[in-house]
Structure formats: structure tokens, C-alpha cells
Design a protein that fits this description.
229 residues, alpha+beta, 2 domains, 8 helices, 7 strands, 20% strand, GTP-CH-I_C/QueF, GTP binding, GTP_CycHdrlase_I, one-carbon metabolism
Length: 229
């Protein structure tokens, strides 16, 4: 298959791209729970009724024995799969430790497994996240980075948005010298439905601070992710 390279838009030069800066996220996306206690929401009974409607839509008999409890089970599963809407990312990163003996290199946690759901088809995508940050005097507990991934993953997402949210939360709360996030994932909306290409992986990355400004640090981050020796 031949690739077609689109020309730059009129008035744009290739050099202009080097000045690109990523868009800033709204802090409400990563500093607080997505659902507030006083936010109006459908009742549990209404949610179960909606599941029953979908079962009827696909042609099922919702009164048969195997489906009698399915609406309840689906809503309970949603409560678990999407609990990230009720959790606060900033609180996870709030506790830090200052006993670092002057450590001044980046901290990397790789292979953080996760499962999320695509906001376009509500189908799972899953994979691994790799996170590095260069602390300023204080560090956060390593498990907190995994917990942060879990909170954002348990919401409807795109992989690009998930990557950006993780980086933005670390950058804003910890205020390190730089953050690097890479996510690799397989999307069932592409492998199970649609084009049906199993095994295809999608990679996304986001860099801030020293990682964004220094290609050598990006390269070292990537090397440490890939080096399994």
C-alpha cells in the first residue's frame, strides 16, 4: 500500500512545527473527582432498565432465566469498571517523601498494566503504561503512580487523552523537572469489531519539562523501557 503525504497548509512551514506546544488540559480533568456528590444521576433502577432495553434491542428475551439478573449484574460491573469517576487523582499524589539523599535523576515505573474503555464504542482497550518523572527534592510512593493510572483508566477514555491526563496530573501536583508517559495498548474496538485486526498495538506518549526539551532524555527513557536485560 502506498502512503500519501499531504502537503503543508498554505502559509505553514516545516520549521513552524518545531514551536508546537501541547494544549493545556483543564485542571478539573485531573485534579478532582469527575463526579461530584451532588451531581444529578439516574437511579439504579433506571440504569438497570436501560440495560434491559439494550438486551431487547439486540433481539433477546429479557424474561428468560439466564437474563433475569443480567441488568443488575451489568450495573454492578459498571460500578466497578468506572469507579475512577468517583476518585480524586490529586489526592493519590498528595503524600510525598523527602528522604532522597539528593537523588537527581528520573524515577521510572514501567509495565503498569491497565484496562480502560473506549469512549466511542464502550469496548475495552488494555495494555501497559510507563511513567518517568524527575523529582525536585521530594518523591511520591511508587504505588501511587500505578494508582493514578488506574483512576484515569477506569473512566471512558481515548488512549491519547489518558496519556495526557496522567502526565498533566503528575506535572501539576508534584511539579517535577519533567514527566514522560508512554502507553501501549490493544483496542478491542479494532480487534474484535470493525476491521478485526488482532494484535495491533497503539503507542502514545507525552513529555513535559526536561523530557520535552531534551531529546537525549526522551531517548534514555525509551531505552530503559525497552531494555529488559
Amino acid at each position: 500500500m502506498d502512503a500519501k503525504i499531504k502537503p503543508l497548509r498554505a502559509g505553514k512551514s516545516a520549521d513552524a512545527r518545531t514551536d508546537f506546544q501541547p494544549a493545556e488540559l483543564d485542571p478539573s480533568e485531573f485534579l478532582a473527582a469527575a463526579v461530584q456528590p451532588d451531581q444529578p444521576r439516574p437511579s439504579r433502577a433506571e440504569a438497570e432498565a436501560a440495560v434491559k432495553t439494550l438486551l431487547s434491542y439486540i433481539g433477546e428475551n429479557t424474561e428468560r432465566e439466564g437474563l433475569l439478573d443480567t441488568p443488575r449484574r451489568v450495573v454492578e460491573a459498571y460500578d466497578e469498571l468506572f469507579q475512577g469517576y468517583h476518585q480524586c487523582p490529586a489526592e493519590v499524589l498528595d503524600r510525598t517523601f523527602g528522604e532522597t539523599a539528593g537523588y537527581d535523576d528520573f524515577v521510572l515505573v514501567r509495565d503498569i498494566s491497565f484496562t480502560s474503555h473506549c469512549e466511542h464504542h464502550v469496548m475495552p482497550f488494555y495494555g501497559k503504561a510507563h511513567i518517568a518523572y524527575t523529582p525536585v527534592e521530594r518523591v511520591v510512593g511508587l504505588s501511587k503512580l500505578a494508582r493514578l493510572v488506574e483512576i484515569f483508566a477506569r473512566r471512558l477514555q481515548t488512549q491519547e487523552h489518558l496519556t495526557a491526563q496522567i502526565a498533566a496530573a503528575i506535572d501539576e501536583v508534584l511539579k517535577p523537572r519533567g514527566v514522560a508517559v508512554m502507553i501501549e495498548a490493544e483496542h478491542t474496538c479494532m480487534s474484535v469489531r470493525g476491521i478485526g485486526k488482532q494484535g495491533a498495538s497503539t503507542f502514545t506518549s507525552r513529555y513535559t519539562g526536561m523530557f520535552r526539551d531534551n531529546p537525549a532524555e526522551q531517548a534514555r527513557f525509551m531505552s530503559m523501557i525497552r531494555n529488559r536485560g
